[in-house]
Amino acid sequence: MSTGPNRILDDFAKLMTDAAGAVQGVGKEVETAFKSQAERWLNGMDLVKREEFEAVREMALKARDENDRLSARLSELEAKIASLSSKA
Q1: pLDDT value for 1
Q2: Whole domain around residue 61: which residue ranges?
Q3: C-alpha–C-alpha distance, residues 61 and 82, integer Å
Q4: Which string of DSSP letters, residue by residue, matches 3-68?
Q5: Residue 25 and residue 37: Cα distance in Å, rounded?
Q6: Number of folded domains in the chain?
Q7: DSSP assignment, residue 75?
Q8: Domain check: are 56 and 30 in the same one?
Q9: Is the dihedral of CA 26, 28, 33, 37 positive or negative?
Q10: What is the pLDDT of residues 35-71, one digit of tens each?
Q11: Higher per-residue pLDDT: 2 or 11
Q12: Per-residue pLDDT tens for 12-25?
């Protein structure tokens, strides 16, 4: 009879171990499902990567600088034309 309670405790311990393993497996499945759903949601938002953003930002800064240079050059040429027209 001394093996009876030990066997019950062993069976109970095995049951708890199996239950813990099942809970852990379900937890991993939930985590995987959540991550894939979050990834789909983020992909649907049309977000850009940081590197792409920085590259476009740099292009915009260069374009702005060139626009400022061309605007200054145009003002110079308009001033020359105006001075030539007033002399004629």
Answers
A1: 43
A2: 48-88
A3: 31
A4: HHHHHHHHHHHHHHHHHHHHHHHHHHHHHHHHHHHHHHHHHTTTPPPHHHHHHHHHHHHHHHHHHH
A5: 18
A6: 2
A7: H
A8: no
A9: positive
A10: 999 988 888 888 888 999 999 999 999 999 999 999 9
A11: 11
A12: 888 889 888 888 98
The token pair that represents 45 in the structure block: 């938002």
> What is the pLDDT at residue 42?
83
If asked whether residues 54 and 34 sit together in one domain, one would say no
Indicate the Cα dihedral angle 11, 13, 17, 23, nearest 10°. Answer: 100
Q: Is the Cα torsion angle 30, 34, 40, 44 positive or negative in sign?
A: positive
pLDDT of residue 20: 87
Tokens representing 85? 């027209």
The answer to whether residues 42 and 1 belong to one domain is yes
In tens, the pLDDT along 70-81 reads 999 999 999 999
